[in-house]
Amino acid sequence: MTTPVVAVRGASVTFGAVRALSGVDLEISAGEAVGLVGHNGAGKSTIVNVINGGLTPHEGSVSYGGMASGMTGVSAARAGGVRCVFQELSLCSNLSIVENARLMHAGLTGFGWRKRALALIETKLSEVFPGNRVDCSATVGTLSIAERQMVEIALNFLDVSGPPKLVILDEPTSSLDSALAEQMLAHVRKFVSGGGSVLLISHILGEILSTSTRIVVMKDGGVVAARPVSEFTGKSLVEAMGSVVREKTRTGVRTVLDTSPTVIDIPATPRTGLGLKARKGEVIGLAGLGGHGQTAMLLALFRERSSNWLPHRPDEIAFVAGDRALNGTFPLWSILRNLSVGNLGALSKRFSVHAANEDAVGAEWKQKTAIRTPDMHLPILSLSGGNQQKVLFARALSTPARIVLMDDPMRGVDIGTKQDVYSIIRAEAEAGRTFIWYSTEMDEICLCDRVYVFRDGAIVAELSGDEVSEHNVLAASFSGEAA
Amino acid sequence: MTIFNTALSKPWIWSWLAALATFVLTVLFTGGASTFSLGQATLTFAAFSVIVGLGQMLVITLGPGNVDLSVPATITLSGTLALKFMNTDASLILPGLLVAIGIGLGVGIANYGLIKLLRIPPIIATLSMSFLVQSLAIWSNRGLRIKPPDELSAFTTGMTLGIPNIAVVGLTLSVAIWWLLDRSIYGRWISAIGQSPFAARMAGIPVDGTRFLTYVICAVLAALCGYLLACFSGGAALNMGAEYLLMSIAVVVIGGSAVAGGNSNVPGIWGASLFMFLVVSMLNTYGFGAGIRLMLTGLIIIAVIIAASRRVSAR
Amino acid sequence: MKIKISADHIRLLIPLVSLAVLLVAVFWLQPRAMSYLGLNLLFNLAVPIALATIAQMLVIAVNDLDLSIGTFVSFAACVTAVYMPSTPLLGIFILAVAIAAYAFMGMIIHLRDLPSIVVTLGMSFVWGGLAVLILPSPGGQAPVWLRSMMTAQTPIIPFAIVASLVIGIVAHLIVMKSTLGVAIRGVGGNARSVSRAGWSVLRIKVAAYALSGFFSVLAGMALVGLTTSADANIALRYTLLSIAGVILGGGEFVGGRVSPIGAVVGALTLTLAGSFLSFLRISPDWQIGAQGAVLIVVLGLRLIFSRREA
Predict the structure, then answer these.
(1) Which of the residues B56, B59, B115, B124 would you substitute to probe the C interface, choosing the one with the greatest number of C C-beta atoms within 10 Å?
(2) Which residues of chain B does C113 touch, with a Cβ-Cβ cutoff of 8 Å?
(3) Which residues pair with A27 in a beta bridge?
(4) Is A399 in the B-facing interface, judged by CB distances under 8 Å?
């Protein structure tokens, strides 16, 4: 028995109230290809960040090869031969491929490093993707997305001062077509049979099943199954990812009458898949793995229905952001101002915001959504994440908007808040509002009247009524066992 | 005590305290001999900085990368053309004012037009525009120094109840801008855009429309300043706007408005403008030259910005 | 050999073509300009502007902006004119300290995450003040060696053009070819992945600012060599000109996309745009207007081409 390339022992990570990783053990030995699967929030990205040194676990340890376990961080991981192809492309797009290689590999020094790097990259690239037409002297910014991904993969397999020991591939084929993906997977198999090891994350189960030697299934921050690949099938993998115990019956499902007017109608196209239709008073769920086109769809819907030049008609559409820090709250403002910004027109007389009106609306929604604060004039950042989220909900619901778009707003929100908000959504829908709700949480998807499942930027399935179930959503999110 | 604490928590209080301290130091040196005239000169010159500073403040509120570099050129062009148009004729005072405002409108529209059409950062758009505008000013000026109409000249150098008329104009404009910033919907909008343009867009704010309006207001205020300044100094000069490029940004920063946008205040513009002039007169009184004065100004700006950054990180 | 015209090439091509067009127009209007002396006159003042543009470009490469270059170049010019002829060692020492101050400014900006515009704005007052202290009224003199260097009679091609070429090539080697240059542009492009690969972003930024200070000092010295004296306001226009030159030469404000050769070409184009008018017998009043117009036209062309490519 050799020492494993990387050993994670009892690792726990918490982000605020959310336990992203709870006591995970994971060892990867030389000559092993570990497939990692799990639905949104299972902890895949977190374990990747722990292994590549970007994140130090709050409990537990990581050790690389035979090295002393005291060393942690990015440099320790790199010294231990760990390389990582990140899900979001992480090359400098203003630099050439060769220059990116220089930044990534400290060993490329001395006179003539450009020539050496170019030769190394060209060899590696044609080794991984035979017959490719990538111009290795090009600037990354001029490459297509697929070419960038190919380059990033090749750069991480590069042997500059010692070959890589473990290559982490986080959705490496998301921009590659099937032929290129197969080439890459073939290279991974060759690399593994030559003694290297790989950690592969993919939403295409066929890739996992055909490439891994062992599959680790994660759920809710823990490992729920870790067995040799021969013991899995596509079907059993989907089942392992889901919750076995609670195949919940859906409560409160309503069928919105076909006669109620359609408020959104997007026709089906080859690029975007099935069309999307929403009726007055419906709660529509957008499901699928994160980043597969749901947010883009919501943004497009909003942009289409609001003006960038003239004051907005607030009775048309409102948006509830998910990533609060990035696109939701205004951090310099009070709670009240964050709430009222969506509907200032109605609170104003002659363009002047009427303080009494504003206070009244604030008090009304503070009570309705149970925002926990002594004073609505306190800064928004004095609130907990869940209460900030309630403010964003109140901002949208206090407008007379017919359509409310929600961009995974419940991420990291405590369960009490969630229940409060669910009942508000329900009541508002009864009153005739339409909700388009992108959610990464299965429980919420199961609350929707109708669900569209996204994969690779397109709508691949429409589920309504009793078809809305965890199993059906998972099956549609992960592309089939074929390939 | 609580009033004291509330006052100290205002970002503009420091510029006022600094202005007061400089005033006292200057008066102490002169033994109070010229306190009154010093006060009047300060109010007058500060008012010019205030008028441009208000516009620059609105632009800076829009967030990182938003700054109007065409301010000095607009000042020069508007002063030159307005005086030329009036040609010392008192009956043309109001139409002359309209000419100045029209120039402001034109520059503002052109500025935002360039930003949008060429999709370039505001800095480079207003920079190229300032080249064109400055050239236009040089061409129309032609070294001729046309005097303002006597009545206008008397107004701009005159007083009302012991307060310089220019200061009254500056104060009136400040109140108007304060209302815009603190009370109106527009003020909420620019503050939201300054904090996060994307979040502002998703909250239903017409981002482009608001930004457009802001650049126009800034240019109009600069044009207005040019009109008054040219009348005050008895004619337009080609370099009359030059010092207001850095000055307009400096009074915004020293006045406690957030450089990163989203949070601005009008009183700070006054405090900073008074302070900037008082530093000059203090150092003059103490016999220091322009060199020390400039260095001190620069160090103050840097100190303020470092202090402000500390405040943010402490939060 | 496939020839692929990328956006980068077009970016560099546009300023080159505009320079060529302007040059042809000048020659057509005034054939006598097509001589050794004529070219030297046309481009003489381009050398310090090109150096200042390179300095600005280094700061822009790390996604910052330097509003103090004009006063800093003036300061360097004053130091050169006052100290270099009589006490060269003191002069060199002062300039070295100034470069160190530049590097320190870069450090402060990075460590405290300050907006570079405001810090450099403040520094511009400081440099301006120092310049006035050193040289209260216009004067000083150029050291003999500097004067003879800047007025050197190079064979066949005028000195101004040779010097611009050398500046472009040296800057190209530093920024585009050296490892440090790769790191500097990498920070502009994606600072996160640079630090993820184990680099110190702080050191890279400090190096960029120090290099920028160095080129500004050279600009100040070159200016004194040409004008034989200095004053505290000698180069104030360089702040805006250098920004325009970088953008004209295909650089962008963010993303680390810069081109040293382009920046030099941009500086030459801006210089020529001014001279062009005097050949047209249009009053020099329009000189800066022409610079602005060239800037707008080039930016417009760039947009059209990049759209076509997309």
Answers:
(1) B124
(2) 309
(3) A7
(4) yes
B264 — contact with chain C (CB < 8 Å)? no
Contacts of B186 in chain A (CB under 8 A): 351
Q: Least CA distance to C299: which residue of chain B?
A: B118
Does C190 reach chain A within 8 Å, measured CB to CB? yes
Domain boundary among the residues A241, A274, A304 is at A241
**Residues in C touching A109 (Cβ below 8 Å):** 179
Most confidently predicted of A270-274, A377-381, C212-216, C269-273:
C212-216
The span from the CA of A38 to the CA of A224, in Å, is: 10
Of A74, A95, A113, the CB nearest to C185: A95
- Report how far residue B104's alpha carbon sits from residue B102's, in angstroms, rounded to the nearest whole number: 5
Pairwise CA distance, residues C47 & C162, whole Å: 10
Domain containing A230 equals: 6-241
Question: CA–CA separation, A264 vs A451, rounded Å?
Answer: 14
Strand partners for A169: A85, A200
Chain B residue with minimum CA distance to A310: B206
The total number of structural domains in chain A stands at 2
Return the CATH number at A105.
3.40.50.300
Instruction: Give me the residue from A310, A348, A395 closest to B209, CB to CB.
Output: A310
Residue A267 backbone zone (phi > 0: left; psi -120 to 50: alpha; other: beta): beta
Tell me the per-residue pLDDT of A355-398, one tens digit each, with 9 for 90 and over: 888 899 899 888 888 888 888 888 888 887 778 888 888 898 88
Write out the two tokens for B93. 């005072």
CB pairs under 8 A between B and C: 140
Most B-contacting residue of A304, A332, A406 (CB-CB within 10 A), to test interface: A332
Beta-sheet pairing, A403-407 with A352-353: unpaired
Q: Is A208 on the interface with B (CB under 8 A)?
A: no
Helices (H), A194-293: 205-211, 234-241
Per-residue pLDDT band for A312 (boundaries 50, 70, 90) equals low
- The answer to whether position A192 is within a domain reads yes
Average pLDDT, chain B: 86
Three-class SS state of B67: coil
pLDDT value, residue B141:
75
The reply to whether A254 falls in a domain is no
* pLDDT tens string B129-162: 988 998 888 888 776 678 888 888 888 888 888 7
Residues 6+ apart with CB under 8 A from A435: A282, A283, A284, A403, A404, A406, A425, A428, A429
CA distance C237 to C240: 6
CATH level 3 topology of B11-309: ABC transporter involved in vitamin B12 uptake, BtuC (1.10.3470)
Residue of C252 and B3 predicted with greater confidence:
C252
Note whether A85 and A177 are same-domain residues: yes
Whether the pTM exceeds 0.95: the reply is no
- CA nearest A337: which of A313, A369, A362? A362
Class of domain C9-303: mainly alpha
- Its ipTM equals 0.84
Strands A262-266 and A276-279: antiparallel
Q: Which residue in chain A is spatially nearest to C200 when comparing CA positions?
A: A103
- Please indicate if any CB of chain A lies within 8 Å of the CB of C82: no
A450/A254 Cα distance (integer angstroms): 10
Q: Is the pLDDT of residue A73 over 80?
A: no
Kind plus residue range of the DSSP H or E element containing A271: none
Which pLDDT score, from 0 to 100, does residue B312 have?
44
Sequence ranges of the domains in chain C: 9-303
Q: What is the gyration radius of the CA atoms in chain A, in angstroms?
A: 25
Q: CB count, 10 Å around CB of B315?
A: 7
Whether residue B67 contacts residue C117, with contact meaning beta carbons closer than 8 Å, is answered with yes
Q: Which residue of C has its CA nearest to A93?
A: C189
Distances (CA, A) of B83 to B89, B98, B233, B237: 9, 12, 12, 11
